[in-house]
């Protein structure tokens, strides 16, 4: 059963090729859903109902071809198809439903990411949105991790520049936030360093010369590493606020993370000076004798410059955020991501940070 999240202009030949290869291997192919937006509760419920109606059972599997939206939709529906205690995924989401748990093994998911960004092919959660009432929450279970992640950078070559910039900055945000998270651990940190070593020199070329293969390959691998890192270490403030920007202001996940990253670094720098200095030294070849404060500042300045280079706005007003929305943004930023942020932020502090960004 296939979930397709490719842009319509490129979907037809790619999906036809994949379906033909599966049929040639004797596998029955069913096109189950097409999605062009971040998945909502209704999307998951509809797809899960269809899977149950088709008597999806062991032996069936989900193939998601697309960005994080298609992969997360497939992961969530794969779990709901085999766990019919409720007809809505909302009852399984963190803090918003009846707190039901996934008990039966989900259908296996094979993920083929077509954007280099979310790393959803390597995470154990699926992010699901709802606009009324507004929330953006995760369905979590170790078993919704895709069984196979097939990362083919060729699929990302046709992604437009703006989406390449936003999804690439999402991956970079995930690599940095997981590295400095309160839940950071040494092995995922090593993955983050390697991911940043690939992504930082490649993102501008991937945006500006989209057809060039080597930057696309670097970004695809960095995104996969970012998923592995965040699945083990959590995230931070940029992702916390990004969820709120998504549901209240309809800002795409990647763009929201990209706008918040420079501010999140400045807010956390005093508590993570050592880590940011270490990143700067290993990624930018700084003199080992450079004081930590100066090296950490160099790291923040380089990220600022990278955001400007790939066209990320620095002000929330550029995303359509209005001053009267700030209280809603503060309230909806308190998800699992925020709990990994090094600095504890009061509502008053977060309010003044967001107001200063308007
Ligand atoms: Zn992200």
Structure description:
The strands form two sheets. A five-stranded parallel sheet has the order 2-1-3-4-7, covered by helices on one side. Strands 5-6 form a two-stranded antiparallel sheet. The protein is built from 13 helices and seven strands. It is globular. It is an alpha/beta fold. It binds zinc ion (ZN). Zinc ion binds next to α4 and α9.
Decide which structural class fits the backbone. alpha/beta
User: What is the CA-based Rg, rounded?
Assistant: 20 Å
* Strands ordered across the widest β-sheet: 2-1-3-4-7
Query: Segments where pLDDT lies below 50 for 5+ residues?
Result: none
Bound ions, cofactors and other small molecules, one mention each: zinc ion
Relative strand content? 5-15%
SSE string: EHEHEHEEEEHHHHHHHHHH
- SS field, number of helical segments: 13
Specify the biggest β-sheet: 5 strands, parallel
Q: How many individual β-strands? A: 7
**Which of globular, elongated, flat, extended, rod-shaped describes the shape?**
globular
Helicity level:
40-55%
Gap between N and C termini: 44 Å
Q: What is the averaged pLDDT score?
A: 96
